[in-house]
Design goal:
Layout: E1 15-16, E2 25-30, H1 38-42, E3 50-56, E4 63-67, E5 70-74, H2 76-79, E6 83-86
Antiparallel strand pairs: 1-6, 2-3, 2-6, 3-4, 4-5
Length: about 90
């Protein structure tokens, strides 16, 4: 017998950090724990924490973020896995 466990997000407009524009702020909702680097989690990249996009690098480069008063850079593919809710 096989079991399939998965999350269903009922929010049709799922946004990720990769969708943010420069200067926008958001709250982290969820992310796949097994594919996010441990260093990000240790720096406060956790559900419920507020993040801001400071700058994006050219040619699809890393995103520069502020999380808990710390500045970090993450790859765009990692940012695309972290679900957020924009703060208005």
């Amino acid at each position: 017998m096989y079991f399939c466990f998965f999350k269903i997000n009922l929010n049709k407009d799922v946004l990720t950090i990769a969708d943010l524009k420069k200067g926008e702020t958001a709250i982290i909702l969820d992310f796949p724990i097994d594919s996010i680097p441990l260093k990000l989690i240790e720096m406060g990249c956790l559900p419920g924490n507020e993040i801001s996009l400071v700058q994006t690098a050219i040619f699809n480069g890393p995103l520069f973020l502020t999380i808990n008063e710390s500045n970090i850079a993450i790859r765009k593919d990692t940012a695309a896995q972290i679900q957020i809710e924009k703060v208005l």
